[in-house]
Design brief:
The structure is a single chain. The chain is of the alpha+beta class and 549 residues long. The chain is built from 16 helices and 11 strands. Among the domains are: 163 residues, Phosphorylase Kinase, domain 1; 197 residues, Transferase(Phosphotransferase), domain 1. The longest helix is centred in the middle third of the chain and has 22 residues. This is non-specific serine/threonine protein kinase.
Length: 549
Amino acid sequence: MARTTAVRTYGRARRTKAVLISPDTAQQAPSSTSYSYEDKENQKPDAKPKQKELNSVLPDDGEENLVTLTERIKEIQIKKPCVTITTTTTTITTTTETKQQPRKTKRKPSPEPPSTPCKVKPEKVRPVEPHSPAPSDQPILCWGDVCPPGDRIEKIAEASYAEVYRISNERGTSIIKVVRLESPIKPQTKAQEKSGLVDEEPHGEDDLGGEVRISEWLADIPGFVVYKERFLVKGKATKELLETHQVFHRRMKRKDPDRLQFYPSPSRYLPETKFLVLELGDAGVSLEDFKLDSISQVWDVLLLVAIALARAEYQVGFEHRDLHEGNLCVRQVRPPKTKEDPASPIHFGYSGLDITILDYGLSRAQDPDMEDPEPIAFDLEKDLSLFTSTHAPQCKVYRQMRSYMIKGDRAYLPPRFHNNPYDGGRISWSEHHPFTNVLWLAYVYEYMAKHFCGDKRDLVAFKKTTRELWDHLNPDAPPDVQSFSSAADVVRFVVEAGWVTEAQVTNGHGGGGDDEDDYHEASIIEVQVSDRDDSRLRRSPRQRQDPSP
């Protein structure tokens, strides 16, 4: 049955009053505790980190009519690519000539840190208790209902605490995240014990309510996954589920022979084994498995991620906190375009790619429809191994986030300094620190530069053009170099630089233009649709526009 679509820009069509926590209120002064260490990844011990300047387009007052990110972007004066970060908001000139001939502004000195260190106690911001993601009247399915004979299922990733599969049938394609709930499972065999199998711990249903609610809040913002449905699955696995699990594990072992299997084999599922399954829109291929062979792809992925994060920062006070290459998906939604004017400063919208940000298990956000919103945030202090691990490059970013919580600046602490939960009350993951989004944007920038397989001359030109952007993104920059404080700052910079037009920022996603027929938002789990009242199925129609660069 045809569905009526609604033309949207980004986010919700109408927003009620929502007071967001300003980055200024979340800023912490450097701790009085002395951290002395030697680490080749960090700055020299005698280098005193300078507190960064906070520039943000987020409102810091509680006025009745909050401006949208679009309106704040329109207050920016477009400037020359080599700009410095300022704390003043100027008026935008919307003529084409101004956009193509940006001018340079002066930079104000960064503010001095307060003389008295402040401590943020976790209890000062009370996180919302998540609702149970699985209501008692929800039907319980079996694996044969989720993927019956004739449907295709493929395991594509392993998230923070979930396995990720792609399911396809004649109704479309969906991504499902499978989380094992607290329930019995077969013990490991001797062979599994010998191989060093490490079982991911099961989770309670209430533990997952936060991610479900964040998914719902983000569903209307372009660049985030479309949330379709959630349901319970119980019982033994099907043959197809077991086979795709084994294929995935063998492929991962070829890439990393020392890699351990963290999720139990489906052969161990019992009739009483229960799972929570989240059905999401198909997001394409993870950046980890996508071949970056055109510099226009690098430009679009970086800018699309920055714009999506900036919108989410404003609308729901969002921080992803786990945005590595496995949680960022890319798909081709239209043919690439050739840049007609090589002298044009615009670099956005040529690749035909779109991005989707996945996995909000470690994220932080707050309800945009509440007058006095309280945040939902995963407490990362519950498992400090996240900060002491060195198994992957993104582990450094986890330490950078926590170091910022402790010290209030970019200089991060090595693993041995992350063994004390809450660090004497300095750490609260419920607080809004959009600087964490800047850290992950820097990670994405470096990852794409390292894994680019196109013409190396194009990469050299890209790095030259974005040199000043990287100076303010780089977490390892000298302490006298100012840092972006949020993804919104990054978006303001790229608009001022002329790389993205104002219309591209405000008109939908900027990289989209995909046909709705190719962007299914209805559940494809047939038994789920027939057994549930239509009023309980989430529909979030979104029509993306295709602004010409």
